[in-house]
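Q: What would this chain look like folded?
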Amino acid sequence: MQRLFEKFDIERCLKKDDYTAVYIARHIFLSKQILLKTLCCQNLPDQTVLHRFKREAKILAQLDHPNIIKVLDFGMFAEYFYISFEFFPGNNLRQVQRNKLNEKIKRSIFVQILQGIHYAHSHNVIHRDIKPENILVGADYSVKVADFGLALLSDENQMTQKSSIVGTPGYMSPEQIRGEKPSPQSDLFSLGVVALELFCGKNPFLGPDVGTTINNILTANYGEINTKIASLPQPIDRALSLLLVRDRRHRAGSAIEILSLLGIIPKIPPTTHGKKRKFVPVLIGISGIILMVLQVATAILERNRHIAEEKPESISDTTVTFVPEKPVAVSQKPPVVDSESMKKSSPDIKTTGYLAVMCLPWADVFIDSTRVATTPMEKSLTLNAGMHEILLKHPNYPIYRKKIQIDPNIELLFKVNFDTLFGYLDCKVYPWAKIYVDGQFKGHTPTAPIILDPGEHLLALENPNFQRTEQPINITRQDTLDFRYRFEKE
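A: My prediction, written as structure tokens:
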């Protein structure tokens, strides 16, 4: 048996080229099987490879979490740099997801990746290369996030130039592609792509070549992606819609935000992992029971109420209410929403009604300018009878407003699909331009189709090397206006 560096007995070589090698070995001092990576530094043509090896060792040495691959030791021996990792038998997520996984397993994998990323982010580590190949999955579907060779400590200076692209094109966030400084939210976008591929079976951004793939991320029709997300079970659909937001200012702010949405309350684990791994499946089971109860309750409610749904034919369709055959006792309904405007009068069965809101993909719900909920809603709202204004906000769509009538002792279900309410503007400008619609800055080209209210708008294009141009445009509901323009020198 070959022995390397006076402490590793080589059992099997997994990969080897002119400078690097990966082995399954036995650490003779620790008396355990390990994974060994080596790099021959002699005559190394690209010193960034050595930098990547050292970076991975340095960063992983700071991280100790059951969902992150663990470094055991590292160092130099003669002309070799080596890292020994815990041995984790299994396959990467790309290989695992070729099998037919049930929804419970997919959710468990998703949660475990989130927990690993949350821990890394809490230690100021940004991975920068979240993709299926860097997610290891064991036979019991336990998960390890691996390959921190491109990781960045958030408090250190970037080693790369602003214009460089670091990561894997099909999974990079828009800001990474633009060469901007990455943040934890960059990892969250990448995880959103991984999760969408896990749940739907396909990465919507992948093209026939790198250029097309990058362009797809920058200019993709997120309306189509949100339609795919809307077909997923709750609250997975909400989680992905918060992760896959092109503008990181409106993206989920942290992994813990998504974990909370999924009913998981992560804790920083102790250095001994022991009981910690049981935490995820237990919470998943509890969340599953809660979801089942909610689904049953929803099914019962559906049989006893009328749906006031926004139809594609008209934005101003009249909502319809349904009077139940028997009065419903107030005690059977959820409590009054905690907002000043709704606490002025006590909930009286003669003066209050009820509102449930369903919105695809999701929305923050405002009633009479007061934020009261975020869809999907677990409870109906109790409102004073009479006219109210409902306002729905989603970061990828224009604000939607509508007047609704609440009748005493009646539950109104207000249902909206954002993708049926608006139109799209697809601008292709040569060489490039800042886009303004009705005086509001909408981004630089190339950009994804811009979602607009149907009707007349004023489009303006600016490039400092050319004269500003303005043109009226008309947006049609559920249609895309293709606008092409080439700046010409005067």
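The CA atoms of residues 232 and 379 lie 21 Å apart.
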